[in-house]
Write a structure and sequence with these properties.
37% helix; 15% strand; 2 domains; 8-stranded parallel sheet; TIM Barrel; 3-stranded antiparallel sheet; 364 residues; 12 helices; alpha/beta
């Protein structure tokens, strides 16, 4: 595999571990991926619940938790550590400022358009910025704002397809439309990134994610022009993943028919593993008492059947009867828990096997 270069950041393996919220990807997983040559990513979503003992103020606990996780990751690796910060988070600005102050290597930001992200950088800031988009159009909108208002070109861009886990930047109709498949949108985003890069005398690496499961998948998507891939689901089924073993077992036990699209309380479709909690939601048996955190701008407790933050936190702790696991479309294919190193070695071996097979076919 080729290296991934994001300005002065060089990842030996072109794999970015996707940020998975409410405790699934913290410093443990992120540092293990970084040590294996990839880009490790801490998710900032839900840190206010996880670090609730520090402060009952959700925002203060979130800021403290992010500082703690970044510092723990730094102690465990000299590799690349990023932070995923959703635009939809009510404390988006404070989490961005904290990441930059703590010198996170890169911020990945989606779940909305991060139009003002460069405004948080100072003259001496070293943190790179990478928006997460679902289309070339979204990338162009972001770049017009970033370049026009801040003179800043994205350091990289992540394009997520409709087979990703968690909240999805697509309508329910688009999820199964071939025109919106990752294979269809990657060339479009690559073309836009190349054009914008050339106009501004730089190169914008494109990182593609959503449903990528094997080394062969990595080869195929990079053959379409992507410089690297983002993978989340595969990293859940690792020893170093920060979630409860019971959460990970949900992936191992899942069947293909268990992977479903749900309507999240935050107003977006999401992909999750069906369980008894989600069944009760469908039956109308779940009722939130109040909004305890005000954590997501788009969440309306008066129309929400449950608090998504508490549901995901319960799942992270292994209390699956009171929550559920977000997952990518291929989560059911996970059949064992392995180390991050073993997973990375497996993916690279599968990638090489595909390269060799293509070369052999071309030689015939």
């Amino acid at each position: 595999m080729s290296t991934l270069k994001i300005k002065d950041l060089i990842a030996r393996v072109p794999i970015v571990q996707g940020g998975m919220g409410v405790g699934i990807s913290l410093s443990g997983l992120a540092s293990a991926v970084a040590n294996a040559g990839g880009v490790g990513v801490i998710s900032s979503a839900g840190l206010g619940v996880i670090y609730n003992e520090f402060s009952k103020d959700y925002n203060l606990a979130s800021i403290h938790g992010l500082r703690e996780e970044l510092r723990k990751a730094r102690e465990a690796t000299k590799g690349i550590i990023g932070v995923n910060i959703m635009v939809a988070l009510s404390n988006f600005a404070d989490l961005v400022r904290t990441s930059i102050e703590e010198k996170a290597d890169i911020i990945f930001s989606g779940a909305g358009l991060p139009l003002n992200l460069p405004s948080f950088l100072k003259e001496d800031s070293t943190t790179k910025l990478a928006p997460i988009v679902s289309s070339a159009r979204a990338l162009k909108v972001i770049c017009r704002r970033w370049i026009g208002e801040y003179g800043y070109v994205p350091d990289a861009v992540v394009v997520e397809g409709p087979k990703a886990g968690g909240h999805l930047g697509y309508s329910n109709e688009q999820l199964n439309d071939p025109a919106y498949s990752l294979e269809a949108i990657v060339p479009e985003v690559v073309a836009a990134a190349r054009e914008i890069g050339e106009q501004n005398g730089c190169y914008i690496p494109v990182i593609a994610g959503g449903g990528i499961f094997t080394g062969e998948d990595i080869h195929n998507i990079m053959a379409l022009g992507a410089d690297a891939v983002q993978m989340g689901t595969r990293f859940v089924a690792t020893e170093e993943c920060d979630a409860s073993p019971l959460f990970k077992q949900n992936y191992i036990d899942a069947k293909e028919e268990d992977i479903e699209i749900i309507q999240s309380p935050v107003g977006m479709p999401g992909r999750a593993i069906h369980n008894s909690f989600l069944e009760k939601v469908k039956q109308g048996l779940k009722q939130p008492k109040a909004c305890p955190f005000n954590c997501i701008k788009t969440c309306d407790v008066t129309h929400s059947p449950y608090c998504i933050m508490l549901a995901l936190y319960n799942a992270y702790k292994g209390k699956m009867e009171n929550g559920y696991a977000f997952a990518g479309s291929n989560a059911w294919r996970c059949d064992k828990i392995m180390s991050v190193k073993e997973l990375m070695d497996t993916l690279q071996a599968e990638y090489k096997a595909k390269v060799d097979a293509v070369a052999a076919a071309a030689a015939l």
